[in-house]
Amino acid sequence: MYAILALIACLGVSLAAQCCVPPQWTSQASFLTTVVRNGKPYYNRGTLLMAYDAVRHRIGQYEHVELNSAANTLDIGVLLDFTANRKWVINSKTGKCYTMPLNRKLDDFIGCVSENATLVGSQDSVGFAPNVLRLNTYSMDGPGLREYASFTSDACVPVGDTVRGTIDGSECSPLLRELSAFDWFRV
């Protein structure tokens, strides 16, 4: 019995390691979260523009965020360049740009689902016949949170991502059809 469970667990890890995203892609996403502070709920919402370039080892993200039920807004651009080992963060409202070490090796630039991910859904689908997208969904754990990420089952194209848990602090986290996807960010 334990051998069968171990075999199933190894198969799940093996399947997760085989899912690698295309070398270049862009994406748009939105999010909505609720924070309860002193018994009062506040929403945070925003939109993301993402560009992933495995050829040049760069990840870019532009994010517009409304915080505290739109009392405050934030427009931030982030560029991670694994070849230069640099991270640039620009606040579009103030025009301030911050440059800092990325503290990552080129080997850290991986476009594949983590080997410790668990395949939790292989029969997921989005859409209606005949335009149905078949998805594989993986569960990955991090400090204080769990992430569920869905990719197309045939080409491993990222489709959706849900993060549940508590994140202390805030760090921009990124995700190309063409290089012009980086035009919004001039370094």
From TrEMBL:
GO terms for molecular function: calcium ion binding. InterPro entries: Ependymin (IPR001299). This is Uncharacterized protein. GO terms for biological process: cell-matrix adhesion. PANTHER family: MAMMALIAN EPENDYMIN-RELATED PROTEIN 1 (PTHR10697), RICIN B LECTIN DOMAIN-CONTAINING PROTEIN (PTHR10697:SF13). Residues 1-16 form the signal peptide. GO terms for cellular component: extracellular region; lysosome. Keywords: Signal.
